[in-house]
Amino acid sequence: MRSGREKLAWLISAAALVAVAIFSTLILTSPSPPQPSTTSSSSTSPTTVVTQPNPADPGPARSRPVSLSVPTIGIAVPIGLLGLEPNGTVMVPNTAAEVGWFKLGPTPGQLGASVLLGHVDSSSGIGVFFWLKRLSPGSTINVGLANGVDLTFTVTRVAQFAKTAFPRRLVYTSPGTRSLNLVTCGGVFNQATGSYESNVVVFSQLTKVTPS
Predict the structure, then answer these.
(1) Burial degree of 84 (CB within 10 A; 0-12, 13-18, 19+)
(2) pTM score
(3) Which CATH architecture has domain 65-210?
(4) Could you give the 3-state DSSP secondary structure of residue 164?
(5) Burial, 25: exposed, middle or buried (Cβ in 10 Å; 0-12, 13-18, 19+)?
(6) What's CA 96's distance to the chain center, in Å?
(7) What residues does each domain of the chain span?
(8) Grouped pLDDT means (10 residues each) for the chain, 212 residues
(9) Cβ contact 106:165 at 8 Å
(10) In this structure, are residues 126 and 33 in contact, taking their beta carbons and an 8 Å threshold?
């Protein structure tokens, strides 16, 4: 079904909540496809190495992420909650200005991969994650938790994947790491199918915890 704004759909498996293989596919549609310039459908940026955490350290207590700030691309927004639809697909942000946290994964900063989802554009213009592809290794991402803890993540790489080869396990599960992955659509907009042919993923790792 189509509407005035593009939509994402991430198909995942209904397995355990933490450190499991969540199978997802993102689909984004839009009647008008403004987008940043892109490279090939399987491109990736250079990587930044971040020291891996001690698995014995549980990290921050589970708490809802409430704010996202990415200074280099001008993002400063609240974070909503995304669960599952009855058909097993991930709920998506209601508007192109919103960011949502997949709440069945770990809290940002805990072991595993926490995933934030956002639109790249809509019929009325660019979306909150329109400029994700401009990030590069070393860029910082800040997340505030409801319990007052502030977290800083450092981007390790930015990659673009063809939807037919989307690395679901890599994005949604990262055992032994404290990952935050930002996901949107990108690449070529296929007018025939009404969707983008690729996904843009920003991979980042926890580098600082500021207690409340």
Answers:
(1) middle
(2) 0.77
(3) Beta Barrel (2.40)
(4) helix
(5) middle
(6) 14
(7) 65-210
(8) 39 35 36 38 53 68 97 97 88 92 95 95 92 97 98 97 91 90 93 89 96 88
(9) no
(10) no
